[in-house]
């Protein structure tokens, strides 16, 4: 028997939280530099803060739902519905992540003579690449959990 989906979801969002914190800190350390690294760092800070907020909100929501499930306020069918919705969101996000990568690379290549714009573009592409891996792998894992639940 698998653990409560919401306990799993809370744990599964931890890498996003860690990435966001690390990205924000490392990005802030790049801000004193000029050109490429400053703008790469600006992207890291901006995306990192958003990632931290999303992870914290998601983890808090999962914790509250896990508690409601433990007390019987939510049932297994509710968790299954939430898992399917979460998987769909992750799948859509993975598609958006591909767009972030492409836009970031397009900006970096279009402004090859401008180190600041290259930093901005590669900063966006880097964040998009992490998010693509995170979202795609997590969507796959959630789908596998749902399949395993169907076979129990």
From TrEMBL:
Keyword Transmembrane among record annotations: yes
Membrane spanning residue stretches: 12-34, 40-58, 89-108, 120-138
Transmembrane recorded as keyword: yes
Pfam families: DUF6992 (PF22503)
UniProtKB keywords: Membrane, Transmembrane, Transmembrane helix
Domain of life: Bacteria
Protein name per Swiss-Prot or TrEMBL: Uncharacterized protein
């Amino acid at each position: 028997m698998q653990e409560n989906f919401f306990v799993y979801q809370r744990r599964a969002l931890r890498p996003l939280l860690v990435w966001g914190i690390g990205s924000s800190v490392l990005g802030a350390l790049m801000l004193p530099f000029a050109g490429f690294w400053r703008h790469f760092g600006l992207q890291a800070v901006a995306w990192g803060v958003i990632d931290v907020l999303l992870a914290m909100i998601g983890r808090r929501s999962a914790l509250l739902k896990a508690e409601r499930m433990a007390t019987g306020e939510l049932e297994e069918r509710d968790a299954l519905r939430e898992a399917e919705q979460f998987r769909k969101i992750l799948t859509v996000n993975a598609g958006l992540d591909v767009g972030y990568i492409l836009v970031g690379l397009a900006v970096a290549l279009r402004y090859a003579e401008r180190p600041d714009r290259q930093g901005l573009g590669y900063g966006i592409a880097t964040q998009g690449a992490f998010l693509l891996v995170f979202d795609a792998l997590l969507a796959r894992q959630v789908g596998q959990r749902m399949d395993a639940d169907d076979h129990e």
